[in-house]
Amino acid sequence: MKNKLSVSNLLGIKYISLEDIYSIFDAAETFKEVINRKIKKVPSLRDITIANLFFENSTRTKISFELAQKRLSADVVNFSSSGSSIKKGETLADTVNNILSMKVDMIVIRHPSPGASVFLSKNVKSCIINAGDGCHEHPTQALLDAFTLKSKLKDFSNKNILIVGDILHSRVALSNILVFKKLGANVKVCGPLSLIPKYIKTLGVEYEPSLENGLKWCHVASMLRIQNERMNQSYFPTTREYAKQFGLNLNKLSQCDKDIIITHPGPINRGVELSTDLIDSGRTVILDQVENGVAVRMAVLYLLASKL
Questions:
Q1: How far apart are CA 56 and CA 79, in angstroms?
Q2: On the chain, which terminus has fewer CB atoms closer than 10 Å, C or N?
Q3: pTM attached to this predicted model
Q4: CATH number at residue 171
Q5: Which of 62-76, 247-261, 264-278 has the highest mean pLDDT?
Q6: What pLDDT, on the 0 to 100 scale, is given for residue 59?
């Protein structure tokens, strides 16, 4: 693999080019073959040390990054803020610089503050990979979502993608909008108007108030989690009412005269965004997304490490 990226960090989809996206896809195809072999490890990042700094709870993203790093033979250090000097008042930059003084080559960071990864990239000398910053971006999730859809759609040109749910608080939504638009897809968002950002049209995206109409229009329905942990007020009357109006189930799908690809970044609130019968029916590509997440993150790590 000789593909190169135009960037030295992965801070957000807004900072990378279409060529970068396809370079990551090409590398991910190779690494997907690797992780499906009997021996799932390659020496590509031997002697590279990577620190995972997660300041927010995470299951899928953290495990996915750690697996990707170990499949590439990197040395891995996991950092938890709960038992760190940040609790004693140390700044983020000082914490990371102390870690870097231990000869760490790459930093994967998830942080509740928007722009944390950009801040770090300007204040520390290391390769920074954004694993989610507040309500801002989650670039590797968007890349794995797009990689998964590429295998199903083949071509994004003039394909219709409906993003449904909590757009306002979702870093996945923003990154997905940016990556799908760069790939040439048409994007609409759907959900309670209270959960739709006022700036949404500036991204070249239309608002669709009706899930039923959106399903008739789209080739892909990307369902998002209601992020209760980021809400400081009520954005809709009840969870039951939300599920009735914007939740997806087999009955609503049966009313469409076509096969719609259904994605969800996880974790899922069963019975809210997706019904249990739909989740268990095999009609979604959620497990494909999880598998592809390791391959895509291997690709990102490999391509960025080649620039060290």
A1: 11
A2: C
A3: 0.93
A4: 3.40.50.1370
A5: 62-76
A6: 85
Confidence of residue 225 (pLDDT cuts 50, 70, 90): confident
Amino acid, single-letter form, for residue 33 = E
Question: Strand 261-263's sheet: what is its strand order?
Answer: 206-207, 186-190, 160-164, 220-223, 261-263
Shared domain check, 174 and 35:
no
Confidence at residue 231, expressed as pLDDT on a 0 to 100 scale: 46
Separation CA 25–CA 156 (nearest Å): 14
Is-contact 183 156, C-beta < 8 A?
yes
| Identity of the residue numbered 277 | D
CA–CA gap between residue 83 and residue 80 (Å, rounded): 6
User: Does 8 fall in a domain?
Assistant: no
Rounded mean pLDDT of 139-165? Answer: 96
- How far is the C-alpha of 1 from the C-alpha of 167, rounded, in Å? 36
List beta partners, residue 77: 51
